[in-house]
From TrEMBL:
<dbReference type="Pfam" id="PF13407">
    <property type="entry name" value="Peripla_BP_4"/>
</dbReference>
<protein>
    <submittedName>
        <fullName>ABC transporter substrate-binding protein</fullName>
    </submittedName>
</protein>
<feature type="domain" description="Periplasmic binding protein">
    <location>
        <begin position="42"/>
        <end position="301"/>
    </location>
</feature>
<feature type="signal peptide">
    <location>
        <begin position="1"/>
        <end position="24"/>
    </location>
</feature>
<keyword id="KW-0732">Signal</keyword>
<comment type="similarity">
    <text>Belongs to the bacterial solute-binding protein 2 family.</text>
</comment>
<dbReference type="InterPro" id="IPR028082">
    <property type="entry name" value="Peripla_BP_I"/>
</dbReference>
<dbReference type="InterPro" id="IPR025997">
    <property type="entry name" value="SBP_2_dom"/>
</dbReference>
Amino acid sequence: MKTKFRTGVAVLGALALFATGCGSSDSDGGSADGGGDTIKVGFAQTGSESGWRSANTESMKEAFSEENGFELVFNAADNDPAAQISAVRSFISQGVDAIVIAPIVEDGWDDVLQEAADADIPVILEDRTVTASEDLYESWVGLDFKKEGVMAGEWAAAEFGSEPTKMVVLEGTTGSAPANDRAEGFDEAIAGSSIEKIDSQTGEFTRDGGKTVMEGFLQKYGVDGIDLVYAHNDDMALGAIEAIEAAGGVPGEDIKIVSIDAVKDGMQALVDGKINFIVECNPLLGDLAAELVKDVLAGEEVEKTVYVEDQSFTQEQAAEVIDSRPY
Ligand code: AHR
């Protein structure tokens, strides 16, 4: 398996490439073979659960624009795995030139990916991964979720040192690659530390979900019984902040919070001292996904996995960059 890391510079490079109209294959004829006037692409998005997802959808719609030579058939499945698979089947029956999927969950993709292969429609995965054989898709572009979990866990282990620490976890969508990998990476990083995971439950990557789950934790343990929240995304951390404040606690002080994404609202909460540390998950994957689709349809060899690098932010670092961030 070939693996390639692309930095934010590469992402910017891709943006510039598209801004100057490098997509020559869309203007010289053909369709599924990479020529043709437009390339018809079906994109199966997870839903609209978070600020990250909105930024990702926007990035994909901008990249797969008519201006760039695409006709985009967009579906957001409201985080229902069966509905997402139906959307992919509908793309196959519409005879699109290529399919891009942000898989809600990792399992259950073998049959429909085989159907796409049988119909000779290439599939590109973006954002989340699947457990199906990599022979069933051309390429995947996204983030290293396990590394994100490790970075969050390393911060927590360093922050609390040898102080006994009770932690609760707000998990992402059950069965999704980011929930699985962020849990694994974090647990590995805090192994042997003084942090004890006292509870863990899914908040479905939503602000409401994070708030509801945190309310339950606070009823069970009280503000004084929880030292740390690890939220698998900023939206759930923002929901947890509301729950902590409603319970009379001070988020970021009485209960520290570490989360993942670095979307605008999360970064603002970090600047305000309500979140203590954020690991980035870059949602601007559209241009790289569009480049992969064009390359695959043009018959070019592409990397099987394309990683985009993430950063992390303390309060001071967030204050320095918040105004210049695009999402
Ligand atoms: O798959 C990426 C995750 O999905 C983001 O971290 C989360 O906010 C989103 O819903």
